[in-house]
TrEMBL record:
It is an enzyme of class 2 (transferase). InterPro entries: Ppm1/Ppm2/Tcmp (IPR007213), SAM-dependent_MTases_sf (IPR029063), SAM_mthyl_Trfase_ML2640-like (IPR011610). Gene3D superfamilies: Vaccinia Virus protein VP39. It comes from the Bacteria. The keyword S-adenosyl-L-methionine applies. Residues 319-344 are annotated as: Disordered. SUPFAM superfamilies: S-adenosyl-L-methionine-dependent methyltransferases. GO terms for molecular function: methyltransferase activity. Belongs to the UPF0677 family. Keywords: Methyltransferase, S-adenosyl-L-methionine, Transferase. GO terms for biological process: methylation. Its EC number is 2.1.1.-. The lineage of its organism: Bacteria, Bacillati, Actinomycetota, Actinomycetes, Streptosporangiales. This is S-adenosyl-L-methionine-dependent methyltransferase.
Amino acid sequence: MNDLTAAASPAGSRQAREGVRATALPTGVGITALITAYARAQESRRRDALFVDPLAESFVVSAVGTAAGTGNALPRLGPARDDGSSALWTSLCAYLAGRTPFYDRYLERALGNGRRQVVMLGAGLDTRAFRLPLATGTTVYEVDTPAVLDFKAGVLAGHEPASAAERVLVAIDLREDWVGALRQAGFDSGRPTVWLVEGLLMYLTAPQADALMAAITSISAPGSVFAAEYLNRRSRMDDVPISDSGDRAVAELLTSSDRGGPGVEPEAWLSRHGWVARRSDLVEELAALGRPVPALFDPERSDPLRSWLITAALPVPVRDVDEDAPMQTRRPVDSEVDSSATPE
């Protein structure tokens, strides 16, 4: 569902297709999943890495069929080039790597508050169940297409996870009855859930995003929490830094694949589904991490492109309250809604 190749306009040029598929990719595995893994692999090689994903490079090598190239750089994979020659990739890599600590922190915090059920929609090549010390008793449901999960399983075979969490793979396209498949896999809608929706919403139209959120809400127990990101508006060609014709071809595909997501600000969107939401953005996240702002998200531009980082919680019903207390002072016994709805 979040495959750039599948979402691209049928009228896309041969140059655009070749720009993305500079090498043959595993059948059915989305370029977005692979370039996200590439960004994490590239970040993990830095001396000042924001995180270390030891398995990300394995996905890249398996997809390309070759190991590190000249100067120990990662092999090129579509728009991803580990040689500093692409202004577009420099921005995309900063974005993809920069949002990773946000999701890492939120997941660890949400589990620290006692939740033990995690669902990753459009999980792609995420390895958090392998690289983060998730608590014993945690179940992580990874939902994505059969092709993506088959490729992932093949690469991860033989690797031992760092956590005691149980991974459950739910092989289904999100355009199908993923709720039914999730239930069949053992998901318990009576338990609070941590929902991670990384790198997906911008590829949906507003009605599709609403349908997805309605489905999530329908099976979320009170106290469930949610993290996602999407852009403040659809991306345009003039947003994208371009170094050469290869960058231009990829930029055309990226912008044509952007469906706009929910189309309204996060607090309003999630409120109408019954969630309490807060947001930050990528610029704030990168500043806190001591990283420069990528050209793609330069806040000094007129009408700047922003990547909203969103957290939300489904409130716990008020209970055991003093009926004589003023309504505005009544609080749930479980008051972690506020603390869980913040990215920090």
